[in-house]
Amino acid sequence: MSDIRHSLLRRDALSAAKEVLYHLDIYFSSQLQNTAVPVVDKGTIELVEEFIFHVPKDRNVQPKRMNSLQELQLLEIMCSYFQEQSKDAVRQIIFSALFSPQGNKADDNRMAMLGKLVSMAVAVCRVPILECAASWLQRSHAIYCVRLAKVLVDDYCSLVPGSVQTLQQIFSASPRFCCQFITAVTALYDLSSEDLIPPFDLLEMVVTWIFDDPRLTLITFLNTPISANLPLGCLDLTPLLGLVRWCVKSPLAYKRNIKPSLSNGHMGKLPREMPDSEGGDRDSKPLYSKLHLSVLQVLMMLQAHLTEKNLFGRLGLLLFENVAQLVEELARLVSELNPLNATKETELSLDRLAQALQVAMAAGALLCAREDLRSLCSRLPHNNLLQLVMSGPVQQPPHSPYQPGFYPHIHTPPLGYPPRPASAAHSTLPTHTAHPAHNTHSPHPTQTFLPGMNFPYRPIR
Description:
By secondary structure, the chain is an all-alpha fold. The protein is built from 19 helices and no strands. α2 (13-34) packs antiparallel against α3, α8 (142-159) packs across α11 and α14 (240-256) runs parallel beside α16.
């Protein structure tokens, strides 16, 4: 490595960067011929950091930096290389060697170059780079993933009006990248503040993707060996949790951002879900309703996929602790908006939460005990549908292959009757004699619901 380094020091910045990329190709192609798991050694990483990301190895050496034109030329060289490299394994290992965060001062330069490369790949539809970026998003820490997502959102949803169409077109080119991108943007935009509400163009694009093909959200899960040890802090296997958060929190989050009328009679800033002043219809309410329906459809699909993988009742794609965090965020929003009379929005949020919980438990995506859910939702305001979900499902019978204590299928007993307890295994009962005939009873009057009476529900015990 020292000989290569001395040779690179005599070159200009662009020529040295091109030479490092050429060296990586030879080095890893040779390794893959001899071993199935190539090793990215420290010397290789140092060459990449010094001559591509311009973090000098020696403090006394002045770093060689590329101007904007040279940087653009290098990005074009990288695009061409990844496009022309026919071996996916070589592409993936070189992409990882270039852009895997190392936790050092070179990471800022590394992330800046990665954002520009992926943005260029979107613009010119370079599928090999998008596929490499999808793998990178799956392996890297969520902190770095949301940084890359923010770059793409800024480039295609904020800076140039109408450029979101370019990003939207990659749906058919690289669905795997789209799945990881959705997971990253739902982790970035968690609706915790006005700045973290997804831009309208981004929301519309994500909803269109998922509505057109709900299976898009499951691509990473369906193509990832569950036994593989993913790094701590990485993104979820699916974007389902983030999408449920968008649907559940959006009515209250947008309500929170409505500015009250000022004392001088002028109105404050309109929330993003209201039509804008330019005449365009920017109402996001139908989009969230459409997204909620799509998410429920995806959750219903999961039962078949989990059963096929022999994971039904064993793997929850919606972790209970993450659902608990969502409920905590919702409770804070409700408390914050109480003076604003957000009754309608609160009811809609709680209805969506109840529906998501019910379908997720029925599909086996959420594994938890009924008592845990009762305790978890005790801080939320009363909601009839949520009340039914908390008290409705009965436990699986003992002969069920699923774990006791969980109830992936939901069966709500008829109203007015207590839940039927789980039946125990029993031996064949002896035959008994028939009872004598008895007189026919007079018919009872039919029970009717009186107008104005609340819909009955079983209280939590």
